[in-house]
Amino acid sequence: MVARFSANSAQEKFCADCDVLCLRKNDWDRHILTHKHFGNTLVARFSATTITYNCDKCKKVYKSRKGLWGHSKKCMTNAANAVETNIISELRRENQEFKTILLDLVKNNNELQKQIVDVSKNIHINTNNVNNTINNNNTFNLNFFLNEHCKDAMNISDFINTIDLKFSDLENIGQIGYVDGLSKLIIGKLEKMDVYKRPLHCSDIKRETIYVKDENIWEKETELNPKLRKTIQQLSFKHIQLASKWSEEHPECKNTDSKMNDIYMSIIKQTTGGDGILSMNEDKIIKRISKEVVVEKV
């Protein structure tokens, strides 16, 4: 993670996140390794990517409370819904007479039904072939799969607690990066689980349609995949907590001229999102996970 600072000279650097002025490069190098700086920059980065404000009427998303407030005064969704409701009610009243006529036709159609039954008795059908055709044409019932076959699946909130991290995992993410490191851990854990015990499944890889079990209920994720995204962020935070212990076990990492310092700085950068925009990196992880949990529609 790159800190936000301003420089008044070749040596002076000002950290905007911590409100600290460093007169020399060595002071700056020590400052960026402090827990205060690490926490301030992490909060600023996660806050910028996760807070949104939604309109309860039309579901539009705004980045600020002020933007949502200005929109809410103009939103006419409720009025439009009221008009639509009145129109539907009127149509229902007008259709009542037509429905009555249809019911009369059905009641008076006994003779035609009797003729159809008589014709059906004279048709010889190969029952086995019919059954095979029906079985082959049955559409996959996703709800039955989730609520019956996967009724004992783990909740997504419990799944993250089953991932135990080691220093080697931390060092690995520092080497291969945020996206590759977290993807490997999550996918590896899912692959070791029974398919029916997994906390998530993908029903459409093209559209990345994901179903997640949370609080013992299977639900379809919305477009932003908030539950899976939260799981990724929780795993990232577990890495961050472990990084603090790692630095205590490797005190030489505080020496800015040491190789351990390079490793530590890489770990810090990758555990907090790596290169690029954090939300886009999370999208890449979600795409990789989706490919590994596709439901086989048999």
Q: What are the defining features of this structure?
A:
298 residues; mainly alpha; three-stranded antiparallel beta sheet; 58% helix; C2H2-type domain-containing protein; coiled coil
Question: Could you please describe the fold and organization of this structure?
Answer:
- The chain is mainly alpha-helical and 298 residues long.
- It has three domains: 5-51; 77-137, no CATH class; 142-292, no CATH class.
- The protein is 58% helix and 9% strand.
- The strands form three sheets. The chain has a three-stranded antiparallel β-sheet with strand order 1-2-3, with helices on one face. It has a three-stranded antiparallel β-sheet with strand order 6-7-8, sandwiched between helices. Strands 4-5 form a two-stranded antiparallel sheet.
- It starts with a strand and ends in a 6-residue tail after the last helix.
- Residues 129-138 have low confidence and may be disordered.
- This is C2H2-type domain-containing protein.
